[in-house]
Amino acid sequence: MKLYDYGTAPNPRRVRIVLAEKGLDYELVQVDLSQGHHKTPEFLAKNPSGKVPVLELDDGRCLSESIAICRYLEAICPEPNLFGSDAYELGQIEMRNRQMEAELMSQVGISWIHGPIVAKKGVYKNIPEAKEVSDSNVKKYYERLDKEFSSAEYVAGPRFTIADITLLCSIDFAATMVDLKPDDTLLNLWRWHALVSSRDSIEM
Ligand SMILES: N[C@@H](CCC(=O)N[C@@H](CS)C(=O)NCC(=O)O)C(=O)O
After folding, report:
1. Strand 54-56 to strand 62-64: parallel, antiparallel, or no bridges (unpaired)?
2. Angle formed at CA 158 by CA 22 and CA 90, multiple of 5 degrees
3. If we measure between CA atoms, which residue out of 155, 162, 138 comes closest to residue 193?
4. Minimum-distance ligand 1 atom for the alpha carbon of 10
5. pLDDT digits (tens, 9 = 90+) for 3-53
6. Strand 27-30 relative to strand 54-56: parallel, antiparallel, unpaired?
7. Which of 22, 32, 60, 94 has an alpha carbon 20 to 30 Å from 88's alpha carbon atom?
8. Is residue 172 over pLDDT 80?
């Protein structure tokens, strides 16, 4: 199978980490978003939404949406389990992953879209006020996470799951590409960050 990727993008990184956790072989294909290669007719035939990641199976069928791809990978390679083993855990991990996406990753995305790197491309109308609000939401959310990690080792219970992968990819993208590094005083958040970053599957 092939993974269509873009090095610094947080969503394909989630899939790369899941592939590494599961030890699956695949071919990595870089799609240069900065050159608009994700909007060509060839790429739109693979994902009409024009976004990475896309997983192309050996028979040519394609899946997009990071979590849909990761669920497929969990189905073909159940171990290590990243989405939950029993009914409660399935619900708990889904809930936490959705919260990381909807409450943090989406806000980081707004700060990115209205930040200086995207502004230079002139693709979107730049609204600095939107970035001010999302920057503030991200910083508040980091504080909330720091409190949660005072009594929790991982995002969704006692073990590493897809929810940790979503949070890690959101924070690392925010810190490196959006100038939203969590404050050094958020010691519980940084403890969690060091813990998950030390896994063999984690690369930038
Ligand atoms: N919900 C999608 C989001 C995919 C997405 O937004 N990918 C970004 C890179 S992280 C992208 O391709 N952006 C280019 C664009 O939107 O034109 C997922 O989880 O895969």
Report:
1. antiparallel
2. 65
3. 155
4. 10
5. 999 999 999 999 999 999 999 999 999 999 999 999 999 999 999 999 999
6. unpaired
7. 22
8. yes
Query: pTM of the prediction?
Result: 0.97
From the CA of 12, how far away is ligand 1's center (Å)?
A: 8
User: What residues are in contact with ligand 1 under a 6 Å CB criterion?
Assistant: 9-11, 33, 38, 50-53, 65-66
Dihedral sign for Cα 102, 6, 135, 129, please: negative
What are the percentages of helix, strand and coil residues in the chain, rounded to 5?
55, 10, 35
How far is the C-alpha of 17 from the C-alpha of 120, rounded, in Å? 30
Which domains does the chain carry?
2-76 (3.40.30.10), 87-197 (1.20.1050.10)
**Helices 10-22 & 66-76, crossing angle to 10 degrees?**
10
Give the pLDDT score at 204. 65
